Amino acid sequence: MKYVNEKDINEEIKWAQINTDILQSLQNPRKAYWVAVAVCVAMLACAVTAEVYQYQNGLGVADLNRPHMWGLYIATFIFWIGMSHSGTLLSAILHIIHADWRKPIYRFAEAMTTFSLMTAGFFPMIHLGRMWNLYWVIPYVTDRGIWPNFRSPLVWDAFAITTYLTSSALFLFIGMIPDLAICRDNVTGWRKKLYTVLSLGWQGTDRQWRHFRKTYMLMACFLIPLAVSVHSIVSSDFAMSIMPGWHVTSFPPYFVAGALYSGCAAIITLFILLRYFFRLEEYMTVALMEKTCKLTFAIAMVWTYLNLVEFGATWYGHDPVAKEVLISKFVGPFAPYFWAMMFFGSVLPFALAFEKLRRHMATMMVVSILLNVGMWLERWMIVGPTLSHAYAPEAWNFLWPSIVQWAIVFGSFGWFGLLFLIFVKVFPCVSMYEVKEMVFHRRREAHAEVAEKFHRRTDDMQQATGRPSVEGA
Amino acid sequence: MSLDNILTNWSRYRKGAEEGGFHEYEHQWGMVVDLNKCIGCNACSVACYAENNLPVVGEKRCGKNQAMNWLRIERYWDEPDIEPYKAIPTANVDVWIEGNPPAKKTDLKPSMPSSYLPGLLEQGGQSFEERVGFDGTKSEFQDFGASFLPMMCQQCHAATCEPVCPVAATYHTPDGLNAQVYNRCIGSRYCSNNCPYRLRYFNFWSYYEDAWPEPLHMQLNPDLSVRDKGVMEKCTFCVQRIRVAKDMAKMENRKVMDGEFATACVQTCPTGALVFGDMQNPESQVSKLWSYHQVERGKTKQSKQNKELRGYRILEGLNTDPSVLYLERVREV
Fold first, then answer.
1. Which of A106, A255, B107, B277 could form a disulfide with A90 if both were Cys (CB 3.0 to 4.6 A apart)?
2. Domain spanning A15-465: which CATH class is it, in words?
């Protein structure tokens, strides 16, 4: 209750100050940045080494075996796809429902979307036995008249992920154009050239803003169903099979909820890191942190509910084989990981329900990482137990993934981190123009007369048309 | 690359997708496995290795479940708590097959702990060998101990592996076979995950590199390929033999006769537990056995009038419509 009147953002902040504060994040990196880059490159090198080894010798080096045809690769693939959903949630869903608190924190979330998709995309390739023939899943026209099998969820995957990657990268870029123009006007050297090209001649005219708004809204509306369908399609990799524990009707919403959940947890992690390292306390405020945490908590509960629905449906469905798989999750060789997933996924989020904990950045850092550990385990618990305990008792066994699998999974985090590190130094990780909008609207609500003084032009328009301008800053 | 060609192929593809495979079969190759006759000698499996260029993967990879036994003899041990057996003293698995590796820990049932053995061995004043007879001559031998289940690709007519392959490397042939095109396979392994019988085997390694050291490579069957790493494979019902038989029949301008040829496993089985043939041909031995046992294709549950009939198909409730009929083992209790 103590913080009930807390402001999301300081509305007295000057626009020039916003520019300065955000642009300083693009300045030459300090030593810590290079250390982080080196760590990421080292992690990536682990994965590349493992992958080259696997490419040369076949998937046997990953210790995959007959029941365990899919291993950590597919589990981690789902994890990264899931991670990509929160960016869309923040930038598109919250955009069309006018939740303006998203504005200071959506840019990096959206970058996260694009980069986690770029990470996820590697996994289906890595896991293929003959990845050099990957392009056969694309329906290209040849004289042989051979098409991919359109009935296969893996082909839908290929379509869904490429579409989602293209549109989310485009959405990220479009949303950045006004900011790139600000950067262009404030930098010199190679950056000037880069931003000049990327800002596409943005001048901030009324006409440009109008078109921009329309395009942005259109992209947002396009992206929301796309994001939902992408993870539904990923879930159909499992739900369309006949395997016990996979053939579950509730998988699409369950996957989407899990995706939003792990994405939101990752947003909290990156939120804290950026806030701390770039001194963005003015923009990534504790109040926004609270809102993100509340959102994460709500999604965590949805996920928990869907999880219980799945267990309940299996338990009371009286399909003995599916029930056995469920029991093997509870008490079988996967039990420690299963219960760790239940703890991190369903119990730990209650930490987000406490105001004191929510406002404590170090705690939230640890909690958000553990939430994602839980969500990663969840994906493994989807792939692993069913494979180890399905219909054929001859093929029941437990697989502990080999070092090669772990190295590639580990390295994927390095790849993601590397992309993200490059992003935060090349592009503004907080949306300047939208923070200005947010400040502007908050200021109007708080003190109309100040707003009038600062933004006469907008108010003039209001007098002329009789309604407030929607043009924003 | 003519437009016509593309359009024709496209419509053919669409047609295939809507109708879900072939409906007018030239043949429907099927099999019958009589478990009463199976003695678990593994000769069929060995024959399969020889015929189909299956690599012997070695102990280490075999232990990792990376073996390529297209035809495997699954071995199940009786559980001591099954009602008819409660009265009979049961022995430990390890003793039954002394000298062989013990059954996997993950096998179905808990075998009796070894501490039971001394008592059992002395029971009734007879030695263990005397009571059961390792040569299998004693009647008790079949009454408790191992059951064998030869498992080869069931050549399902509603195969679960087929719709999930992203590149259509596995498909249904007009012979009623579930074919695997090695050259098309990209190794996504979804088919194997979706096979309830787990009968699809993946080339996790380039097995050929060390499976046939010289001069063993001379034994490779030239009628089919040796697979490299990264492709899925499985029992084909010895499709190369089917092709030869069909070609011969065509040259001689006649139909393929029943018993004209057999798959390697059928040919090898010493007890005649396996029968192979064309189910399209009502005169074939296979068709007769299927109809005798009142098992029909395309059903998820058989309506047998005579409950004494032994025929069943494995996991047919999943509507996979397998082509292999198993005849239940009858035991005296």
1. A106
2. mainly alpha
Best to test chain B binding among A394, A398, A402, A404 (most B CBs inside 10 Å): A394
A146: Cβ–Cβ under 8 A, 6 or more apart, which residues?
B168, B184
The answer, yes or no, to whether ipTM is higher than 0.90 is no
Which residue from B65, B106, B163 is facing A152, i.e. has the nearest CB? B163
Whole-angstrom distance, CA of residue A345 vs CA of residue A79: 14
> Is A11:A443 a contact under the CB 8 Å cutoff?
yes
Token pair 């592009």: residue: A427
Which residue matches tokens 């009602």?
Answer: B83
Q: With a CB-CB cutoff of 8 Å, which residues 227-246 of chain B face chain A?
A: 229-232
pLDDT at B93 over 50: no
**Among residues of chain A, what percentage have pLDDT more than 70?**
93
Domain ranges for chain A: 15-465
* B215 prior amide bond cis, ω within 30: yes
Confidence at residue B136, expressed as pLDDT on a 0 to 100 scale: 43
Domains contained in chain B, CATH given = 23-76+151-327 (3.30.70.20), 80-144 (no CATH)
User: How do beta strands B170-172 and B146-151 pair?
Assistant: unpaired
- For A249-298, write each residue's pLDDT tens digit: 899 999 999 999 999 999 999 999 999 988 888 888 888 888 889 999 99
Q: Can you count the helices (H) and strands (E) in chain A?
A: 20, 0
| Rg value, chain A, Cα | 24
Q: What is the pTM of this model?
A: 0.86
Which run of H or E residues covers position A340? helix A335-342
**Strand-strand pairing, B29-34 and B324-327:** parallel
pLDDT band at B108 (very low <50, low <70, confident <90, very high): very low
Q: How far apart are CA A389 and CA B196, in angstroms?
A: 11
Most A CBs within 10 A among B198, B228, B318, hence the mutation to make, goes to B198
Distance in angstroms (rounded) separating the CA atoms of residues A347 and A307: 13
Contact between residue A27 and residue B153 where contact means Cβ atoms under 8 Å apart: no
Q: Is the pLDDT of residue B112 over 60?
A: no
